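Minutes, project huddle
Topic: does the predicted pose make sense with fe (ii) ion bound?
PN asked that the exact inputs be recorded in the minutes so nobody has to dig through chat later. Recorded below.
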Amino acid sequence: MTTTIFERIRKDHDRHRQLLDTIADTSGHSETRQKAWKDFYYDVKSHAAAEEETLYAKLMEKPMGQDDARHSVSEHKEMDDIMEELDGMDMSSSGWLTRFKTLKHDYEHHMDEEEKDIFSKAKEVLTEDKDGKFADKFEQRKAAERKLVDKKAEEALTE
Ligand SMILES: [Fe+2]
Ligand SMILES: [Fe+2]
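Predicted holo structure (tokens), as shared on screen:
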């Protein structure tokens, strides 16, 4: 059976929900927490970029999808800002946890909204995805974005 872009995105979301829980359930800068944070940070960045270039690019083409697409893309930016802030902070500080809880709350809401509202609208637009074409495109964009994020991280280290 072919995987649709909706199933593909939902699979990522489930992983992101698990990682958020792991980070919330751990403390200080334990190895488990650090690893979960890095996994989350890189995966969410490439996931959001791939969504923008597939799902939201398609929604933007239709007048009925434009408001939703703009809303979600602006939420991606807000969450990216919080992730950058958190990445530069000491994760064992109480300030980090407070900020992380905001990110967790906002991102869980964002994923729920995508699955409940955006998918049903996008299904009308992405009718061509019966053969999984957009799921493949999502996968390719995500891999390409992941490389870019890795490159930026490397450059930051050598600066
Ligand atoms: Fe998203
Ligand atoms: Fe998403």
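Observations noted during the meeting:
- The CA atoms of residues 60 and 67 lie 8 Å apart.
- Residues 48, 51, 72, 76, 110, 114 surround fe (ii) ion (ligand 1) (CB under 6 Å).
No decisions taken; revisit at the next huddle.
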